[in-house]
Design a protein that fits this description.
The chain is mainly alpha-helical. The chain has 4 helices and 2 strands. It is globular.
């Protein structure tokens, strides 16, 4: 939610709305995550797998990319919390 990539349900009274991106967080952070997830989706098997799984479910490109962004936030948090470098899946499989 801090990054502003969480879904927000928009509805009122009898109107049944849809979930949209909340846009609560920093627009600069959201933009950086968008660009990083786009590059990560193309270069890392973990992020590519998440993107392709969402697309196979029939999700729109940007919805699938938001799932990649969410995973990227979790990976960044884990790297910072545990003070360990991120090791891509291909490198993990070899070693």
């Amino acid at each position: 939610a801090f990054a502003g990539i969480d879904p927000r349900l928009v509805e009122s009274g009898m109107h049944k709305g849809k979930a949209k991106m909340s846009k609560r967080g920093s627009r600069y952070l959201r933009r950086a995550l968008h660009m990083a997830s786009f590059v990560g989706m193309r270069g890392d098997a973990l992020f590519r797998q998440i993107y392709e799984r969402q697309r196979a479910r029939g999700k729109h490109h940007f919805i699938a990319l938001s799932h990649v962004q969410n995973k990227l936030v979790h990976v960044i948090y884990s790297v910072l919390k545990h003070n360990r470098p991120y090791v891509p899946i291909e490198a993990r499989a070899v070693s």
